[in-house]
Amino acid sequence: MIRIVLADDETLIRDAVARLLDLEDDLEVVAVAGSGTEAIAMLGRHRPDVAVLDLQMPGADGIEVAEAVRAEVPGCGVVIVTGHGRPGHLKKALSAGVRGFLPKSVSAAVLADTIRQVAAGGRYVDPELAADAISAGDSPLTAREADVLELAADGAPVEDVAVRAALAPGTVRNYLSSAVAKLGVTNRHEAARAARAKGWIS
Questions:
Q1: Taking the CB of residue 137, how many other CB atoms lie within 10 A of it?
Q2: What CATH architecture applies to the domain 143-197?
Q3: Partners of residue 101 on adjacent β-strands
Q4: CA-based angle 16:116:1, to the nearest 5?
Q5: Is residue 201 within 8 Å of residue 88, measured between CB atoms?
Q6: Lateral strand order in the sheet of 50-54
């Protein structure tokens, strides 16, 4: 029996997926969580074979939970399901040790088969998401430039971004200018749009 912890902040989706997985003879959902923080607690308590995580959750996102799993429950395989399958998310997930990455549009049968593959030590990445990640290429932005650009993406003033990033306003301007230059656009709004389209920022 493959023991699963399932985490998704949308109750309807979480409950429906849990019921569908429980219909499989060899799969058992031992706990569900509605946030990343709750998922980490459940994983530590139940030590499942596989964690099925939503990418975007309050408390900690799926990738942060995957990093905690790798540190605290190393035998547990991680599958991420997402409605936002950008290339940058896939690359971050793989570097965090995630072994399954699927869009929420897949069937219950594909999810169940992916869980089995991951429990057996294998990997499965949705072919379309993998192709998008390959065609997007690697981000030219440093991690700090990407962070600052993401904080500025909603049009927040430089001073607000500086406070949120714990940086001086001048440093924020430098990071934003560098991101604009690297992406070959004319301002930070275009830079954020271009980086988001490629999946280099959320």
A1: 10
A2: Orthogonal Bundle (1.10)
A3: 80, 125
A4: 80
A5: yes
A6: 27-33, 2-7, 50-54, 77-82, 100-103, 124-125
Q: What is the pTM of this model?
A: 0.74
pLDDT in tens, 1-33: 999 999 999 999 999 999 999 999 999 999 999
| Domain ranges for the chain | 2-135, 143-197
Closest residue by Cα to residue 66 from 33, 87, 39:
39
Q: How far apart are the first and last CA of the chain?
A: 36
How far is 59 from 9, CA to CA, in rounded Å? 10
Q: Are 14 and 34 in contact (CB under 8 A)?
A: yes
| Residues whose CB falls within 8 Å of the CB of residue 14, separated by 6 or more in sequence, listed in order | 6, 7, 8, 32, 34
Judge: domain 2-135, CATH 3.40.50.2300: yes
133-164 tens-digit pLDDT: 777 677 888 878 988 998 998 889 999 999 98
124 neighbors 81 (Cβ within 8 angstroms): no
Query: Could you give the CA distance from residue 188 to residue 153 in angstroms, rounded to a whole number?
Result: 8
Single-letter amino acid, residue 104: K
DSSP secondary structure code for residue 105 in this structure: T
Query: CB within 8 A of 198, min separation 6: which ones?
Result: 86, 87, 88, 136, 137, 139
Radius of gyration for the alpha carbons in the chain, expressed in angstroms and rounded: 18
